[in-house]
Structures are given as structure tokens and as C-alpha cells.
């Protein structure tokens, strides 16, 4: 066994995708700003930056180490989602998707796939509901933990049933990241994620990816990416790779903060209801009874930004119903814990609850 086999995920995130050590060279080479490369003889896609560039390839190798498969990077999580669903589903196919998961998936399903002749079955993020929709299905899309409901699914058991029905399983791994969950090992056929969130964790770039057990399964996805030009640029890709090194320490602190806030909120049943934290990741949700009370809470926080993303080093929260895309109560708050000192964050939330 080589020295790097069997390493924990936090260690692998620090070293993934780095070149062999060469005296005088940096640990992680800087971004390669080029759109064209020397290419003689027969034409190959590698000769033009819309198909591949060295910085992106290195990042894909790094994420592949973490997810345990082959990876293709995209300009955003939605670009990755589109590149998986749109070329792989054809008229006559049947898509089962969690209707309470990311709203962009629902829009692709109902606005683009259904008119094309794909049957779409939207179900809750509930294993019994998903299984009841499996007969005749060809593709199943789940998100666990779901967003914003934070429901968990048993991926190993679900993968067995999905494959038994003759379908393929895709898992949105955005919230958990491969640090906490590796769907390919559980039997999923594809993993999709927005690396914008916890994977890179600094709220300073937009990126996404698709992973599969091998490169063969990604062939139509790769073709779609090249045709539509949905790649991330070299600087964003380099920032994303640089950010992987702190994945473990960031998520460990975010989880510790989430657990501490869960304990605080559970003690404040006088003002807080429906506290949800699946024990995975730094996101938790709760209800403050009304839109006005939720807005007052957000305004009173001093360490927590009112923002719609999650997974960053800065704590953020939002009243999720303001978008009108999720079936949640008006006072439902999605809270993303950052890496602030736990005592400071808990104190800030406690003060805001008094508002």
C-alpha cells in the first residue's frame, strides 16, 4: 500500500491533485491563462480551452480523489445539473425527482424535459415515496440532506432498489460534500454538486461538477460541456482547488457550531419551533412563527449575514419563503453556520432571539 492510500478525507483534501514535489516549484501551480495550446497532427479537444485546460484538469483530479470517481467541472452547479439531465434523458424516459429539493432541478424537469416527452414524477424526499414511484422509471434524482428540509435518505438501500427497477441514480451532494458523504461508494451512478457552497467555502466563486465511477459514463456529459462551453475559467478553478485544503477543518467547525445552535434552539421552544439538523453539515433550519419575527431575528444578528447561499466561512441565514420556491412556513429560517468561534456565534443568536 502506498503512503497515501487509506488516508482520512481531511488529509486527502489537503493533498488531492497536487503535482509531485519538485525543488523550487509551488505546492499548487498557479492558474494557466490560455485558450489555445500547441497542437500538431490530428485535432483533439485538448487543443482548445473550451474543452479542457490544465488548471481545470488538476481540480477535477482533486475532486475525483474525494468523490472516488471521475469528475467533470462546470461553471456552476446548475451548469453541471443541466449537463447531466438534458443529454441523458430522451422522449419516453421517466424521471423520478425529489420535488422538495433544489428548485432549479424542478424547473429543468417541468419546463424542458416534460415538453420533450420525458415523464416527470416529483415526490417528497421520503424513501417510501421514492420507491413507490420507481416502477417504469429510468432516472432518479435525489438530494440528501435535502434543501431546505434537511431530510436524509439511506443511499445504499435506495441504490439497490433504483437499480432493481432498471433506473440510474443521481445524488446532489452539495450540502454534505464528499467529506461527509460519498454517494458513489453507496452505489450511486452519478454525483452532482455546487462547489460554490461548502466544498470551496469562501463565498468568492461559482463552480460545479459531475462525478461518476468511470469516465465512460461521463462521455455524453463531456460532449455536452464542450458543445455548450459550460466550463469554469482558470482563476475560479484554481481558487476552488486552493480552497479544498481547508475542507475538513471548515466543516468540522461548522458542524460543531450547528450542533451548539441546535442545542440552544431546542431550549427556546418559547420562540422557536421545528428545529431541524440532520447531524451532517453546518446547515440547520427552524421556524420563528411569522415573517415579521423571522425578519426581526435576522436584523438583530450582528455576526450573521442575510444571504441566500450556504456553506461559507461566514455564517449566513435567510427567511427561505421570500423566494416562493419552497413549501415552507413564512417564518422558516435556513441558517448556515460559518467558522466563527462557537461561543460568539451562540451568543449572537441568543441575543437576536430576544428581538
Keywords, please?
Aspartate Aminotransferase, domain 2; globular; single chain; Aspartate Aminotransferase, domain 1; seven-stranded mixed sheet; alpha/beta; five-stranded mixed sheet; 355 residues
Number of helices: 13
Spatial separation of the terminal alpha carbons: 57 Å
- Uncertain regions spanning at least 5 consecutive residues: none
Mean of all residue-level pLDDT scores: 95
Main sheet properties: 7 strands, mixed
Q: Let me know the number of strands.
A: 12
Query: CATH H-level name of the largest domain... which superfamily?
Result: Type I PLP-dependent aspartate aminotransferase-like (Major domain)
- Secondary-structure element order, N to C: HHEHEHEHEHEHHEEHHHEEHEEEH
Helical fraction = 25-40%
Tell me what portion of residues adopts beta-strand conformation.
15-25%
CATH topological fold name of the largest domain: Aspartate Aminotransferase, domain 2
- Which CATH class of the largest domain? Alpha Beta
Q: How many domains, in number, for the residues?
A: 2
What class do helices, strands and sheet pairing give? alpha/beta
Any guess at the CATH architecture of the largest domain? 3-Layer(aba) Sandwich
Identify the strand order in the major beta sheet. 1-7-6-5-4-2-3
